[in-house]
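Bug report

Summary: structure tokens for Homoserine O-succinyltransferase differ between web form and batch submission.
Environment: batch mode, default settings.
Steps: 1) Submit the sequence below via batch. 2) Compare with the web form result.

Sequence submitted:
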Amino acid sequence: MSSVFPTDSVGLVSPEVVHFDQPLQLTCGRTLDEYHLIYETYGQLNATASNAVLICHALSGTHHAAGYHHVDDRKPGWWDTCIGPGKPIDTNKFFVVSLNNLGGCHGSTGPNTINPKTGKVYGAQFPVVTVEDWVCSQARLADHLGIQQWAAVVGGSLGGMQALQWSISYPERLRHCISIAAAPRLSAQNIAFNEVARQAILKDPDFHEGNFTEVGTIPKRGLMLARMVGHITYLSDGSMGEKFGRELKAERLNYDINNVEFQVESYLRYQGERFSNSFDANTYLLMTKALDYFDPAAQYDGDLSATFARAQANFFIISFTTDWRFSPARSKEIVDALMDAKKNVTYLDIDAPQGHDAFLIPIPRYLQAFGGYMNRISV
């Protein structure tokens, strides 16, 4: 691409890494004695550090949410449609922080990094982490950056769950919670999809009980299948039908069960292949388990209203009509609980055909509403 970036881009960005040697007690009972987090920032922190916005990523997200790492990058960060000058999260106004969570595989301490106690890659020995653990580590990152209170914590899907957890764990440290295409906990069906994906990885002969790095293999087939299963749930039936229908890869059926016949098969195999070359299998297992474990109301006998009783933030909850992975009904559960707890909440259900992935797509009404809310946040 040209060395001249779009005018609404944050332009060239460089990740930063911060090391923490204060032990982190994890929900699972284990402790990380030390760890590091990789993150990016966009915009400028104001003198009172009151304009900071935290971006929480979803299952396969990274710290690279906006801008470009090199002048010849073909694609910007994963949420570039929403972050930048004049965009919903306007970097002329906000100082934006985006990190790769603990257990990730894109630069933060995780299964594919070195365990300082052994000098070897953590692999299967990396501890189970939860949304609560991520929020705790994010709070330490905020301390490092001199941010006592976020103007907003924002996330979609699993990121939206982190935003909700922030309002519960650190109610005084955020003014606005923006949770998009999320849920208060996973349904049995969602847990089932995650388990099928995990089994695809666990049963891959190249997985070696999570220690595949030591033997020089990658559970590629398992990762491909896991991504294919996941990707189906991110799209709606209508969007898949509109995009692929029953279009054939070739001019006619070949009646060959071993080869690709339909365009949708080709698409899923391509997505699986690409994902298997860029994502760590142990991280995938950890992330899907974090999704399964998220249930903040469990500590309040299942009472979601009581869960939000201590929250101080204003809430913006967004759902999408064709999202069947985290349906609008799940967002309405959150909204109802917040209203019962007498919290300030704004809710919008966007009519969009793209399914769960809609939160990543520049749908005009979505961007307009998102930007309208962000514009009203005082800094």
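Above is the batch result. After comparison, the two runs are identical; trailing whitespace caused the diff. The chain has a mean pLDDT of 94. The radius of gyration is 21 Å.
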